[in-house]
């Protein structure tokens, strides 16, 4: 069993490995994966608001990346009737995303960053940072001081 593709606007670069159980689902948006990337088993990549993944990215198993979010501001209206945001997600080159992470709409993960296993990324992460937790917080820089 290989990766499953649903949608027409999906681009996968050269020398990428999409492991068994990976799903790429555009829902009318687009997904672009750079060269030399690995997406490990049972990861789901959605494309509603656009998903851009750079070169040399590693995404561990059971991660979900969702470039959309429900609007839920009006308690008198059913959530499903309030629409959604579609800001998109950008993941820079040479990023490592640990197992079981959730990457949510509107974030950019800067080049060379590491996202610790189980993290929920709700805000952008600067380049060469290590971020962990729920919600994910930057705990250190990978740059030499």
UniProtKB/TrEMBL annotation:
* Organism domain of life: Archaea
Q: Which InterPro entries match?
A: Hexapep, Hexapeptide_acetyltransf, Trimer_LpxA-like_sf
Question: SUPFAM superfamilies from the xrefs?
Answer: Trimeric LpxA-like enzymes
Q: What CDD domains does UniProt report for this protein, alphabetically? A: LbH_MAT_like
What's one GO MF term for it? acyltransferase activity
Keywords, A to Z, come to: Acyltransferase, Transferase
Q: Name one Pfam family in it.
A: Hexapep
The name this protein carries in UniProt is Acyltransferase
What is the species of this protein? Haloferax chudinovii
Tell me the classification of the organism that encodes this protein.
Archaea, Methanobacteriati, Methanobacteriota, Stenosarchaea group, Halobacteria
